[in-house]
Design a protein that fits this description.
9-stranded mixed beta sheet, alpha/beta, binds alpha-D-glucopyranuronic acid, 457 residues
């Protein structure tokens, strides 16, 4: 448990320093970042013309009257979730053709406008350059590790530079191999062993990159903070700021989750041009905020063949209507609104609530159909802020969408025991015995990817 907590802190510290990387020439401190965030948040609230947003849940102060709820008896204040099979103007969606023609496009449009934001039409081009390439030994497997920099054309606003950091490791001589991409906090040279930050050995003992290259595939990491800073302070910089030439966002502009997902799509563009990789067999994975980004990637870019969505919680696989762990109001507050479209803040301010959204996350998960998707969580004691039951419920509800498209989801609403996966179909679910991490579900996901993607096409 201790090493998990240390790992989480290390990752969060990583994300903070990645955000600082957005201000290489400025002497920034926390106060000035907070000031920039407050200014940006106030600007968006003003553009929206809404009441003061409600505060989110406070898990850190036992005396708070806004503690998160973990009692299932009161975790479902809204019993009814939007029907995936009724269009916004009331048409019944009865088959895959109607889903793809009517329902999918309108859901994608709604999630873009109201929830995650739109990618502008004229995002500048990315030029992928090889920074270094070296032979490395991964536990006896000769591999190539390539470090990449995706240089974004900033001729429209030279004061904002965006260089996307990424790296990819693959067995030497590989041709047309599948790629597993992780949203991470640093790129570079992977190690065969999983990193351990404490006395307990990590689980699994091998790094995920090792597990991947052992199967003959490539493992890539893309650094979220190099695309878009993880904070409201960075919204006038990074790729979002570059597109706005340093100005404020409009209410339906993209948030950081979509910006990170866009970066992953650009990396997939690169794989399409390289014969070492099979761009039709690329998976995206992430944990927590990066798990949310992995789900966003799957929904908005159907070229991704599979998604491993770990401990993603609110903004990821759990429902906005759930009252458990983190709340919608945490994501509409100044600490997290930058992940989302500005428009989304409306639902965290009176008179609107989660129940005013015309969609919920079962539909978002369903937009991955019929492709492979693993919804993953850790044990309740460590991962409950992410609303484990809610992620299971949304996976169950999303299964009907998979079925409509001729694929298979999970066909029970009985929550399985820890380490018992519901893995028969293309939409799958498994709670592992670890904490807020992907770790113990890596081998499970890689087996699924082998079965559903590598062996199938
Ligand atoms: C916070 C946040 C979560 C997020 C997590 C993480 O706990 O509230 O939404 O998933 O950080 O990214 O580690």
């Amino acid at each position: 448990m201790k090493h998990v907590i240390l790992l989480i802190s290390a990752l969060l510290i990583g994300s903070v320093s990645a955000s600082f990387a957005q201000f290489p020439s400025m002497n920034v401190n926390r106060d000035s970042l907070n000031r920039l965030t407050d200014e940006d948040y106030a600007n968006m609230v003003k553009q929206l013309g809404i009441n003061e947003p409600r505060p989110g849940r406070d898990p850190n102060n036992p005396a708070s009257n806004r503690l998160p709820n973990y009692d299932e008896l009161i975790a479902n204040p809204y019993l009814y979730y939007p029907d995936p099979f009724t269009s916004f103007d009331g048409k019944k969606i009865r088959n895959a053709r109607q889903w793809n023609k009517i329902r999918r496009p309108e859901l994608v449009e709604y999630f873009a406008r109201e929830v995650y934001g739109r990618v502008p039409d004229d995002v500048p081009a990315v030029d992928w350059q090889v920074v270094s390439e070296e032979k490395i030994d991964m536990d006896g497997i000769a591999c190539i590790n390539r470090v990449l920099s995706g240089v974004v054309d900033n001729s429209a606003c030279p004061s904002i530079k965006v260089n996307i950091q990424a790296s990819v490791v693959y067995p030497e001589g590989a041709v047309n191999v599948p790629v597993i991409v992780e949203f991470g906090f640093m790129a570079g040279r992977p190690t065969p062993k999983a990193m351990s930050f404490g006395p307990t050995p990590p689980d699994p003992a091998e790094s995920w990159q090792m597990l991947v290259v052992r199967r003959g595939w490539a493992a890539a990491t893309i650094v979220t903070g190099s695309i878009q800073a993880d904070g409201g302070h960075g919204l006038r910089r990074g790729i979002v700021g570059l597109c706005n030439k340093g100005g404020f966002r409009k209410p339906d502009d993209w948030g950081a989750l979509r910006a990170w997902a866009w970066g992953a799509s650009k990396l997939l563009d690169y794989f399409e041009t390289e014969k070492a990789f099979d761009a039709t067999k690329v998976a995206i994975e992430g944990v927590s905020r990066n798990g949310k980004a992995a789900l966003v990637t799957m929904v908005f870019d159907q070229r991704f063949a599979a998604g491993f969505i770990a401990s993603s919680g609110k903004g990821g696989a759990t429902g906005w209507r759930r009252f458990c762990g983190e709340s919608l109001e945490n994501l509409t507050g100044a600490g997290e609104y930058h992940w989302m479209a500005g428009n989304f803040i409306k639902y965290g301010a009176d008179p609107l609530t989660a129940n005013d959204l015309l969609v919920d996350q079962h539909e978002f998960i369903g937009l991955c159909a019929p492709r492979l998707c693993l919804i993953s969580s850790g044990v309740f004691d460590i991962d409950r802020w992410q609303d484990i039951m809610g992620m299971f419920m949304m996976t169950h509800k999303a299964s009907a969408i998979y079925e409509l498209l001729g694929a298979k989801g999970i066909d029970t609403d009985m929550v399985p025991r820890v380490d018992v996966g519901l893995l028969d179909g293309q939409l799958t679910y498994r709670q592992h015995h670890g904490g807020h991490e992907a770790g113990p579900n890596w081998p499970v996901f890689l087996d699924l990817f082998e079965r559903e993607v590598v062996a199938k096409k």
